[in-house]
Structure formats: C-alpha cells, structure tokens
Amino acid sequence: MKVLKFGGTSVGSPQRMREVAELIHAPHLQRRIVVLSAMSGTTNALVEIATLLYAADVTAATARIEALRQRYHEVARELLPGEGLAESAIEALNQHFDAVLALTSAPLSADGERVILAQGELLSTLLVHRYVTQVLGRPAVLLPALDFMRLDVDEEPDAAYIREHLASTLAPYANQQLFITQGYICRSAQGHIDNLKRGGSDYSASLIGAAVEAEEIQIWTDIDGLHNNDPRIVQGTYPIRELSFDEAAELAYFGAKILHPSSVLPARQHGIPVRLLNTMQPEAPGTLISAKTGSEAIKAVAAKDGITAINVKSSRMLLAHGFLRSLFEIFERYRTSIDMITTSEVAVSLTIDDATRLPQILEELRRFGTVEVDENQTIICLVGSLGQDAHGAANQAFAALRDIPVRMISYGGSPNNISILVHNNHKVSALQALNAGLFNAAASR
User: Fold this and answer.
1) Residues 289, 331: contact at Cβ < 8 Å?
2) Helix axis angle, 358-365 relative to 323-333, nearest 10°?
3) C-beta of residue 350 within 8 angstroms of C-beta of residue 368
4) Cα–Cα distance for residue pair 117/99, rounded to 1 Å
5) What average pLDDT does range 139-150 have in this prediction?
6) How much is the pTM?
7) Of 108-112, 183-187, 390-394, where does mean pLDDT reach its minimum?
8) Is there a contact between 289 and 273 (Cβ–Cβ < 8 Å)?
9) Rounded to 5°, angle at Cα 328 from 322 and 334
10) 3-class DSSP state for residue 14?
11) Helix crossing, 42-54 with 110-130: angle to 10°?
C-alpha cells in the first residue's frame, strides 16, 4: 500500500484533476489510498463565509456561498462532459452548498464553522472520484474520512481509533486497488465534524500511512521537492534529494511551506519514507525523507515570520533555583509555545510565534524584572547534520551574515538546527547572503 496526497493546486482546476487522475492510475502503482485537499482558493472562501456569518452579515455570506456554488457548477460541467454526468454531480454538489446555506439562518457556532470548513475536501473528492469512475471508467472507492479520522479528548489524532476504523472501512474492498479520501477533516472525540487545522491534509496522509503501515507516503505539490532555500526570494535554489525525518521536521516547523510541521511525526514513528513530488513535473525525483541523511553539514535554510522576541532582565536570576521553571509556567498557562531561547546570568531572551496572549504574558513577566519586546522578527533556520560541526558550518554561516544585524542565536540545542533571529526587514538579504555563502558551490549540481 502507498498513500498519495495531492494539495490544493494539484486539484485546482478541471485540467489539474484530470492530470491527477492519470497519475494515480499509473500502471506501476500498487494498492493505494489517495488523499485530496480542497481545490485551491476554496478553503479561503469558506473561511471568508464563516467570518461574514460571525459578523452577522448574512447577505454577503449568502452571496459568497452562491458565487462558490457557481464556480463548482462550472468545474463539474468542464470535468464531466458526458450525458447527464455534470447534472448528477451538480445535484450532489448542491447538497453540500445547501448544508452551508442552512447555517445562515441562525448565529454561527464553532461547530457550524467546522462544518463549513469541511466542505472543500468533500467537494474535491466527489469530483475526482466521479471523473475517475464515470469518465475514465476505472474502479475506485470513495472512503469518507469522517468514518475513521478522529481526535482524542486532548484534540490530538487518535491513532488507535484511526487504525481500527480505517481497517474496518477497507475490509469490504479487499480486491480494490484505488481508494480516494479527504485530507484535513476528521471528527472530534465527541463525534462532531472537526479538522486538523490549515495544511492538515499532509498530516492526514501521514496518519493514514501509519495506520495501514504503508510502504511509502507521497506528498504531491506544485514544486519538485523541498528546496535548499526559499525559491520565491532566492535565485538558484535546488531541491534536496535526501533529508532525515528530524531535518525535515525542523524545516517544516521553521517555515518550509511545502510540508505541514506535524506530518513527519507519524511517518517517523513507523519508519515510513515520505517522498515529496511535483504534480506538474512527475518525472522529477523530488525529495526523499527517511531515517537516512546525506553528508552535507547544512542542507537547507528556511524562514519563519511573525516572531516576537521577549527579553527578561532580572538580578534575581543569578543562582536563583526554579527561576526558569517559573518563567516557563507563564507561557504554559497562556498556551503559548516558545521557539528560541538564550540565557545569560541576568537575562533570558526567547521568542514566540503567537502574540494573541502577549499582554497577559508581559504583565506576569514584569514581576520578574525589566521586560523588552521586539516585534516583526524572523527566525532563519539552518538545517543539516550539525552534531559536532566538524566542517565549521556555523562559522561559514556567521561569515555569510557578517553584514546582517542579528538579534539572537540558538545553537547546540539540536544536532540538526542553528536558529538565527533577525528583523523582518533583513529577512530577504539574510536568505540571499546565506545562499551565496553556503550553497553557491552546490548550485551548479
């Protein structure tokens, strides 16, 4: 069994859906589960609809629902040209849009919002499944993800439940080779429609792959693998051929948009390789993520925006037992994660990527001493095999950044990561300087 996930741009138009249908029927593929995201732009439109309903702007929300409905009608007519096929699909599509429209009759609840956000994946899988079975005439089973994807009481994926219920869902189809299901969506522990948050289709694919003990998980996007730097900003980047699970997790967390940060964990736990491939260039080798790693000291650079740096200076820190614990407990109480941290005898500097509860956090931190805040920061993350740094990679990186004002450095906490904090204004020049200083020799490969 293989698991193949296709993102929103990969199913973003009727033509792209046709291309995906051909890819998932390539003759060399064995039994496979195909996980689909919503068509590109759909989730944003659904979020907008929910936002309008929260604001009680029913007129605008209704207009947006109808505009989205018409877009899908057009897609159905182009994708399913056979006699009566488009009309049948439109009837099925309308059931989903009518369900969303029904939510406009009362104030929107959190449960209602999650119902709205679930529709994108339900619509895309409906269309692709009908194209495969009715236009191409090939056998395929549509597996409802809501039958087996579930969160536990801590709002984490319930791996045991997923494994058991996916197995029972697949059991009647022992002779079938192709299954199509939704990414992102799931049920809560209470059975309500829920989701794995934005980008969660990657996570769905990894959880499904772990549940069926897949031979390989493939993540298909619109770029040929994970690049050594951000190709939107830096010229001359190239795809990395091999990464370890830990290296990929670091890059995903610190800004590499091609991969959802959580998606590596289930695959790593079960030793399942993850391959990143390009729907537009399927012959490209892409990036293989596994337990192995290459020999390069620094393989890639990623950037994470929206960072806030907090500096707490206190003379009470010196030799103060339990000081850091008390500090961290504040962030735990306000459910705010810390990305970077550095300490001295009298100060602690740390960063957060969610400033929602910053005022309350700062109020409590001021009990310890003087607090300074720097907003609009960016973490530049250098990832590779840095255990002993025998190659002097850190020195090479710092030399490349000699003209960039650096706010903070975290080095040594992980054998795979050096994190450097700069102001957002210096992000582009920092990425370009690192590309020139670290990868110029490799760019010709």
Assistant:
1) no
2) 160
3) no
4) 12
5) 97
6) 0.86
7) 390-394
8) yes
9) 140
10) helix
11) 150
Phi, psi angles (nearest 5°) of residue 333? -60, -35
Radius of gyration of the chain (CA): 24
Q: Rounded CA gap, 71 and 196, in Å?
A: 26
3-state helix, strand, coil in the chain (%, to 5): 40, 25, 35
Tens of pLDDT, residue by residue over 385-411, are: 776 555 677 788 889 999 999 999 988
SS3 (DSSP) at 439: helix
Query: DSSP code of 380?
Result: E
Closest CA to 120 of 182, 212, 205: 182
Angle between helices 393-400 and 427-434 (to 10 degrees): 130
**pLDDT beyond 80 at 70:** yes
Query: Mean pLDDT lowest for which of 122-131, 247-256, 357-366, 382-391?
Result: 382-391
339 and 379 Cβ atoms separated by less than 8 Å? yes
Give CA separation, 343 vs 110, 148, 369, 408, in Å: 40, 45, 15, 11
